[in-house]
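Hi all, long-time lurker, first post. I run a small reading group and we've been trying to get comfortable going from sequence to structure in the token notation. Rather than ask abstract questions, I figured I'd post a concrete chain and ask someone more experienced to write out its structure so we can walk through it together at our next meeting. Sequence below, copied exactly:
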Amino acid sequence: MSDMITADLVDLDLSADTKEAAARALAQRMVALGRVTDLEGFLADVAAREAQMPTGLDGGIGIPHCRSAHVTEPTLAFGRSPAGIDFGAADGPADLVFLIAAPAGADDAHLTILSALARRLMNSEFTDALRSTDDAATAAALIRGDQTPAASPATAPATTAASKTVEGAGAGAADGGAGPAGAAGAAGNAAGDSQSTAATPAAASAGAAAAPTARTPARESGAEPGGDSGAGTTAGRPFRIVAVTSCPTGIAHTYMAAEALENAGREAGVELVVETQGSAGFTRLDPQVVAAADGVIFAHDVPVRDKDRFAGKPTVDVGVKAGINRPAELIGEVRERAARGEVTSGSAPSTPVERAGEAGEGYGTKLRKWLMSGVSYMVPFVAAGGLLLAIGFAIGGWQVNKAPSVMDHFMWTQADSWGALFFQIGGVAFKFLVPVLAGYIAYGMADRPGLVPGFVGGAIALDINAGFLGGLVAGLIAGAVVMGIQKVRIPAPVRGIMPVVVIPLISSAVVGFLMLVVIGKPIASAQKGLTDWLNGLTGTNAVLLGALLGLMMCFDLGGPVNKVAYTFATAGIAVSNPSDSAMKIMAAVMAAGMVPPLAMALATTVRGRLFTATERENGKAAWVLGASFISEGAIPFAAADPLRVIPSSMIGGAITGALSMAFGATLRAPHGGIFVVPLIGNPFLYLIAIAAGVCVTTALVVLLKSLRKPAPQASADGSTAAPEAAASGTKEPVAA
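-- Answer (accepted) --
Happy to help. Here is the structure in token form:
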């Protein structure tokens, strides 16, 4: 890590008081050293990663990190905040902030070294040393591993991503340190675990009085030998567990969870070996080690690769932060399941939507995640197919849908032929929408075994004209059938053919029977009724629907409610010849979704003093994001001031949606923002509808923020801080 952090990348008096300002201050140091080429682009990537899951960890640690094309080489910056910065941790603000910047194509060696830092954060002596030092060079040396905390022996170097790291041995040394944990991630992304632990989470969770007095190197693959012969034994030997950890970025949480599980396993007297599936790749556990294991722990927020290796064993499946927060509890749970004889008969779920070990997650939350799983895989097909259809109409005219197949007739020099080509390719892409939706809803519920019956059910829904409603139902039924089959206890000789033969055969037959004979016809009738209702919307009803869709698009800015409205709109145009009403709905939805980021950009331009420096910088990016129909561009503003920003955005979005419907604007493309204006019917009035909503939202935000008039505070140089910044204590970041 010698090249990753130097004294110039250390700030022992980080004055920022928001996570955005902290990231900016540390990133500016990277820019000054030429490690980051585009400050705003890099910060946008950091914010996008933060939106997936908060990076605050219990024990006063914030570890924002991302992979970015704007990073020239792997870099780590460290800041120590006297006042603390809220990174979303359950136990309060962070005083130690590590900003990790990895290039988009970072090499494995550097990412492995970064993973070693994540493991060291589990060591209290390491974090205590960083809190006590007054020298930036010393802090950099500690992070690099060139200098070890005074109270502990030298740590061994990190090995490969799938091996354990030796952190040192010492009598009475508490091993585990300030245990990180994080709050749940926002807007429809993977759930974390909100439980807090003591300063030494592994020890506290296990109820141990002190950590082990020595640690020995672990084998490259395989479990550590030993462990006492008490409660941790099985038939005269220690209980054996294999675990897999992974997180969306694969840099930090993956390795923290691995370290916490290894520490807890050591304390519990069980043999536990972890396979870390991180950005640096992963080394598969030895098949003999997997075969000999008595139980399995999955702590992950992205699908576990090659999960079938672990079928037929007692399994606990949780989010990655649960592995950090409560490792001893997970070990106890997998042992209880083994004692009860509970095993997985096939491939257990590998997505974050069906985890029995996730506390406090009801079926309503799971249902939303299952549906969002299908929608997320369907949207790229919608975008590709819809834009191709729209291009086809733009080039070939409104009669392009009646053109003969380009297989039989294609003239290289005729625009009509090219229009027909694009239209017919888009039509083929659209035929996948319902099967993909159904298949990946089932996948979200039951992993790969759910794909076959899900796709079969979705294809049947398409054939019987049950449409998207049929696809939704088919996906849920397919997932439920597979989950039911997986709970049946299967003899060992048959388990090998379950995922590839038995489950696809039985589940496809059941789903096909239900869709064709039992529920298909009623769903098709309901779909036809919904289509007829949409086609019959005129006047006030259409305007009210536009207002409702506008409210939904601006409520959570890319979250579940936003996606419901967007999916409703795209479902209407997902045919070769959509109705006029469906195209009006699509236009209203896209127009309303553009309002929040454009309004925030305008507000920061006309009344910049009401916003912090970070928000003003975000406002510049919001122009492009809003114009591109990316509602998430307003999330930084909504997160900082939800009571003013969200209601204002909803009012503006409702006005835009209503006006778009009233003006009769139509849209065949499901995405593109202002870049597809040539494909919009009544484009001038459409732009007026967007401008009206943007102006209303901007005026409301400015008004509401202006009503709060805190007393200005004098800065150190005698100047007066902006009112909003003074009220919140925000300090302008100083350029490096």
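A couple of things your group might point at:
The longest strand covers residues 75-85.
Residues 152-231, 346-360, 711-736 have pLDDT under 50 and may be disordered.
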